[in-house]
Amino acid sequence: MEExxxxxxxxRFPCSSCGGPMLxxxxxxxxxxxxxxxxxxxxxxxxxxxxxxxxxxEGGALTDWGLEQVAxxxxxxxxxxxxxxxxxxxxxxxxxxxxxxxxxQEQLIRPESLIPFRIDRDDAAASFRAWKKKRWFLPNxxxxxxxxxxxxxxxxxxxxxxxxxxxxxxxxxxxxxxxxVTRTRVVDGKTQTYTEMERYTVxxxxxxxYDRFFNxxxxxxxxxxxxxxxxxxGNFRLDGLLGxxxxxxxxxxxxxxxxxxxxxxxxxxxxxxxxxEDDIRSEIGGxxxxxxxxxxxxxxxxxxxxxxxxxxxxxxxxxxxxxxxxNGQTGLVxxxxxxxxxKIGFFTLACLAVxxxxxxxxxxxxx
Length: 367
Hints:
It is built from five helices and 15 strands. It is of the alpha+beta class. The chain has one domain. Strands 4, 5, 6, 7, 8, 9, 10, 11, 12, 13, 14 and 15 form a twelve-stranded mixed beta sheet that branches. The chain has a three-stranded antiparallel beta sheet with strand order 1-2-3, with no helix packed on it. It starts with about 20 loop residues before the first strand and ends with a helix. It has helices at about 120-135, 140-145, 225-230, 260-285, 340-365, and strands at about 20-25, 30-35, 40, 50-55, 70-75, 80-85, 100, 115, 150-185, 190-220, 240-245, 255, 290-315, 320-325, 335. Helix content is about 20%, strand content about 40%. Strand 2 (about 30-35) and strand 3 (about 40) form a beta hairpin.
C-alpha cells in the first residue's frame, strides 16, 4: 500500500544559504543552521498517530527512519543508539563511556510519532540547578557549586498500548462493627468495672463484573536507564505528539528500542492488572478484603511506537557518580543526588524529639 511505502533515500538538511547543517531548534521549533543561524520551517504532519493491531505481525510497520544515520553500540553498557552519519560519537550518551563503536543496523520498527524537544540545553541545565536548590538533604557545598555536567539530548523509545478489558471477580468483604463490652480491672487494689467498644468484622461474599478501556499505557522501550528515573519523568503530555518527521531528529541522538513490542506488552499487562485490582478493590469497598480472585479478558489490543525527548546527564561528586534526566517537553527533573549525613541525622533527632514530646503530653493528660 502507498501509505505504508518505505522511503528509499535518507534525508539531509543542508542550509540553502551557506551549506551548513540545519539542526532542530527547541526554542523556535524550526530547523536552524549551525553556522549562519538561518531558520527554516518544518512542515507539520497533522495526521493522528496510527494504532497498530498488537495481534498482527510487524510487516506493516515502517522501518526506514528517513535520515542518514549510523548505529553505534557502547562497549561498556551495551546501549545502542542512532546518530547522524556526519556526527562522531565521542562518548556513550547512556553511561558516559568513550568505548562507542559502529554497529550493524537491524531493521527495527520506526516510530510513527514523537514529541519534539521544547526544552533546550541551557533550560535543562537551569532546571537541574533549580532542582538541586529544592532538595533539603543535599550537602550545602553541592548546592552551591557549579556542577560540571555533559547533557545529551536523546529521543528515548516508548511503546503505548490500548486495550479493552472485561473482568469478573469474587472475594470476601469485611466490614467493621463495634459493640460495647463490659470488662474489669484492678486499680490501686480495687476491682473496677468499665465498658469499652470492641471491634468485630462481619464478612460476606461478593462478586461482580468490571469493564475498563485502557488508553496509551506508556512503557519505556529502553533497557539502559534506571526504571525509577524514567517513571518519575512520565508526565509527558501525549496530546503533544506529532507525526514522525526526521527533521526533529537533526542534531539529536535517537535511541533504538531494546525492549521489543511483545515484551513491552507483558510489562503493560502487569501494569493494567495492578490498576484493575486497585479499581476492583475500590468498587468492592469495605474495611478488609480477602480471597480476591480476578479473571480478565483482553480485546482490541493496539500499540504505537514513539520517541520522547529527554536530556540525559551524569556527574561526579567527591568521586561518586550520579545521574539525572530532564524531561525535554516539560522540564521536570528526575535524578540521583548525594545526601548529607549531618542533615539526615539532625532530621532524625528532631523527629525523635517531637515524638518524645507528644508521648510526654499524652502521659501527663492520662495521669
